[in-house]
Amino acid sequence: MIRIVLDTNVLISALLFGGNPQTVLEKAIMGQISLVLSREILTEFEDVLCGKKFAYPPEIARNIVRELEAVSELVFPTRKIAAVKADPYDNLILECAVKAGVDYVVSGDNHLLELRRFESILILSPAEFFKVLG
Helix (H, G, I), strand (E, B), or coil: what is residue 134? Predict the structure, then answer.
């Protein structure tokens, strides 16, 4: 089974805006692909939901995180990566991906997308990921 890490902006887009990000998440929920996340990714996701821009009540954001945990494999990265200097958060995505040995990082983040690959892991936008799935 294909194993992926979704970054925070794809998770937010899946929840709030639909489109390819939502379809990727739905495939994970249905067990068609394996979603891998870390505590750091989930914390960032929850912080963004509760932040000024989206202003989700903390209890609702926490429930959404619990639902993501239920459909994801949670890993605990041990290796620190500093491949993206412009945004240290992006390295948390790579740390999760490397620890889990995933096939793909699905991201909407330009810093990650510019890498195209980190070690053996391909970094694709949601639209590019769907082309790979066929």
Answer: coil
| 42-85 pLDDT tens trace | 999 999 999 999 999 999 999 999 999 999 999 999 999 999 99
Dist. CA 20–CA 22, nearest whole Å: 5
Helix axes 19-29, 8-16, angle to 10 degrees: 100
Q: What is the pLDDT of residues 81-98, one digit of tens each?
A: 999 999 989 999 999 999
| pTM confidence score | 0.95
Residues ≥6 apart with Cβ < 8 Å to 15: 22, 25, 49, 64
